[in-house]
Design goal:
Blueprint (H helix, E strand, L loop, with lengths): L9 E2 L6 H16 L12 H7 L11 H17 L1 E2 L14 E6 L13 H16 L4 E6 L3 E8 L2 H8 L17 H9 L7 E6 L6 H9 L5 E6 L16 H7 L4 E4 L5 H11 L19 H9 L12
Parallel strand pairs: 3-4, 3-6, 6-7, 7-8
Antiparallel strand pairs: 1-2, 4-5
C-alpha cells in the first residue's frame, strides 16, 4: 500500500470505539470485586501487606484477563471498519489516461547515460508500458514545439512502434519548450472526464516553463510527473550539460519529480504514482472497502484458547 492512500483513512463505524471504554470499566470493576486484599489495604501499609501475603499467578503476562484485552481491541478494529480506499465500480471501466511527453531535443542525445539519454528514456517508457499493460496511454514528442505522436490508445504495441523512430530530426522546430505540451495534454485529457496523468520525460527545462506548469496544474485535477533523465554532475572538462535538477523541481512544483536510476526502482515509483492518481469520490456509487475483515481470522485463532482446559475468565 502506498502511504499517500492514508490521506483518506477514516472509520466507517466510529461509534464502536465506545466498546473499549465500556470493557475497561467492566474489567476494572470485576478486578476490584475479586481483589480479596482490597479492605486490608485501607489499614495496612503496602510493605507489610506484601510480606504477609503469598503472590499468585494473576500477574502472568499470558492470562485470560490480558488476552481479553487483545480480543476486545481486535474485535473493535473489526467493528469500527477502518478504510482508506473505495471499491472499484463493477459497472465502469477505468478511463484514466496517461500522457507521455518525451523530450527529443538535442540535449537528449548526450551520452552521459549510455547509450544516450533519449535511448535510456525510451527503454524506461517500454518498461513502464509493460507494467501498465493495455491501459489508456498517449504519446507526445516535443522539442521547440510539441506534437501528438499517438492519441490515447490501449494498444501499447502501437506506442512502441512510433516510439522507436522519435528523435530531433523529425521535429519541425528545434529547441526545448516543455510548456508547449500543456495545451495538447489538456486537449487529450478533457474528453476522458476523469483525472489523468501527464508524464514529462526530459533532462531540463527553461525558467519560464515552471510558471506555465504551476498555472495549469494548480487548477486542473490532473497529475504531473516529471521524470529526469541524465546525470546531475557532468565529468570535469566535459562538454556535456548536467541534468537541470533545480529547474525540474520548479517545474514539478505542483506534481512529483522522479530521477532516473540504473535499476527498475524509478519505473516502479512512476507506476505507483500513476495508479494512485484517481480522485476519491465520496458518493454512494463507490462504497468504501472495509479493511477490518482480515482481523477476523486473527481473533478467531485467539478465541480457540478458550477451549484450553483451565482457561477461564470469571465474570
Amino acid at each position: 500500500m502506498d502511504f499517500s492512500q492514508l490521506l483518506h483513512f477514516h472509520l466507517m463505524r466510529p461509534y464502536w470505539l465506545i466498546a473499549i471504554v465500556l470493557t475497561f470499566l467492566i474489567l476494572k470493576a470485576f478486578k476490584k470485586r475479586d481483589d480479596t486484599l482490597d479492605k486490608w489495604r485501607k489499614i495496612m501499609s503496602v510493605e507489610m501487606l506484601d510480606a504477609v501475603t503469598v503472590k499468585g499467578n494473576s500477574n502472568a503476562w499470558f492470562s485470560p484477563q490480558k488476552l481479553s484485552w487483545v480480543m476486545v481491541i481486535l474485535l473493535t478494529i473489526i467493528l469500527v471498519g477502518p478504510t482508506w480506499k473505495q471499491q472499484p465500480s463493477p459497472f465502469t471501466q477505468d478511463q484514466s489516461a496517461l500522457i507521455i511527453a518525451l523530450d527529443v531535443s538535442s540535449s537528449m542525445e548526450q551520452s552521459d547515460i549510455m547509450p544516450s539519454r533519449l535511448l535510456q528514456a525510451k527503454q524506461k517508457i517500454l518498461k513502464l508500458l509493460a507494467l501498465r499493460g493495455d491501459a489508456n496511454t498517449a504519446l507526445v514528442a516535443y522539442a521547440g514545439s510539441a506534437h501528438v505522436v499517438m492519441p490515447i490508445t490501449n494498444d501499447r504495441e502501437m506506442i512502441r512502434h512510433f516510439l522507436d523512430v522519435l528523435d530531433e530530426s523529425i521535429m519541425p522546430v528545434k529547441g526545448k519548450s516543455p510548456e508547449a505540451v500543456i495545451p495538447i495534454a489538456n486537449k487529450l485529457l478533457t474528453p476522458t472526464n476523469v483525472p489523468g496523468t501527464l508524464l514529462v520525460i526530459t533532462d531540463g527545462a527553461p525558467d519560464d516553463a515552471a510558471i506555465a506548469y504551476d498555472d495549469y496544474f494548480s487548477e486542473a485535477n490532473h497529475q504531473l510527473i516529471v521524470w529526469g533523465i541524465g546525470k546531475e554532475n557532468a565529468p570535469e572538462g566535459s562538454v556535456l550539460s548536467p541534468l537541470q535538477v533545480d529547474n525540474l523541481e520548479d517545474m514539478a512544483n505542483e506534481g512529483r519529480l522522479v530521477l532516473i536510476t540504473p535499476d527498475q526502482s524509478d519505473v516502479d515509483k512512476v507506476n505507483r504514482y500513476i495508479e494512485n492518481n484517481l480522485v476519491v469520490l465520496d458518493d454512494g456509487t463507490r462504497p468504501w472497502h472495509d479493511s477490518g475483515y482480515p482481523v477476523v481470522f486473527i481473533a478467531a485463532a485467539l478465541w480457540l484458547l478458550w477451549f484450553r482446559k483451565g482457561w477461564t475468565l470469571q465474570w
